[in-house]
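Colleagues,

For the teaching module next term, I've prepared a clean inverse folding example: a structure given as tokens, and then the sequence designed for it. I'd like students to try predicting residues themselves before seeing the answer, so please don't circulate the second half yet.
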């Protein structure tokens, strides 16, 4: 099972909640931290249950709250190697041990298997994701 909930989608901020049987994660955290926490709680999702934040790219409407969320909760950041340096400048003081890089290989987070694909955009690196869980699959692409 995969549930996908768009928390925000606009030039003012983007964030998507991905919910599985045992794993919760975000794609991007580009909205104000308080708003992000409030939206998660409204959905009965504890912010501390967010295992990972998948980064599509470093623009602030996708990364605004990544660093502050990680400093408050135990989430890991998953970032494409091509966008790592740009993203590190956006998130501020976060231990590098909490940043997981990927290139073009599949990787897993909980019960999700994730594959990235490159997207054309005016950023250091922009990726979309194909997320698979058992028989279910969802693709996410932004800013094309």
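(Answer key — instructors only)
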């Amino acid at each position: 099972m995969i549930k996908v909930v768009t928390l925000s989608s606009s030039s003012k901020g983007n964030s998507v909640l991905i919910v599985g049987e045992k794993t919760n994660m975000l794609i991007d955290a580009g909205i104000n931290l308080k708003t992000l926490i409030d939206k998660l709680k409204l959905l009965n999702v504890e912010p501390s249950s967010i295992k990972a934040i998948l980064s599509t790219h470093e623009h602030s409407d996708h990364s605004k709250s990544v660093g502050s969320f990680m400093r408050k909760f135990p989430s890991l950041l998953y970032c494409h190697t091509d966008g790592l340096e740009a993203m590190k400048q956006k998130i501020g003081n976060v231990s590098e041990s909490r940043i997981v890089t990927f290139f073009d290989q599949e990787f897993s987070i909980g019960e999700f298997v994730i594959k990235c694909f490159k997207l054309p955009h005016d950023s250091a690196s922009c990726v979309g994701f194909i997320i698979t869980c058992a028989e279910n699959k969802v693709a996410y692409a932004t800013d094309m």
